[in-house]
């Protein structure tokens, strides 16, 4: 299976998270509008990536002849639901620049938790899941 598009999306996502962190570090209140714009842009990319994984990647892995590959695909898909839900909740809580600027510490803490989990997930997919997908 050719997963180059998934890999590129991971790299783009990590770059977007880095850009968001830079905005946060230079001042949440001062950059609330830019932070919100970054979140909105990232959210659409993340939603499209997750939808592609659900429609293409996970079904291909789960229908693989190798039981280990099939089980790994199923496990990763099930685990993703929790992270997707956490990210959606994060975006819902911080969907206005005024909310971000009124609670910079709350935003910073929430963002750190969500993006740390997202980063770990991307790393696990790159290290464990994608090598299996390339064999399918």
H/E element string? Answer: HHHHH
Shape: elongated
Q: Which percent range fits the helix content?
A: over 70%
Separate helix tally: 5
Number of distinct beta strands = 0
Described by strand count, sense and barrel closure, the largest sheet is: none
Unreliable parts: none
* Portion in strands: under 5%
Report the end-to-end length measured between terminal Cα atoms. 5 Å
Give the radius of gyration: 16 Å
Mean pLDDT: 93
Number of domains: 1
- Secondary structure class reads mainly alpha
Organism: Dyella mobilis
Protein name: Hemerythrin domain-containing protein
InterPro entries: Hemerythrin-like
Pfam families: Hemerythrin
Could you characterize what this model shows?
The protein is built from 5 helices and no strands. The protein has 136 residues and is mainly alpha-helical. It has one domain. This is Hemerythrin domain-containing protein.
Task: Offer a quick outline of the entry.
With 136 residues, this protein is an all-alpha fold. It is built from five helices and no strands.
Which tags fit this structure?
single chain; mainly alpha; 88% helix; Hemerythrin-like; Hemerythrin domain-containing protein
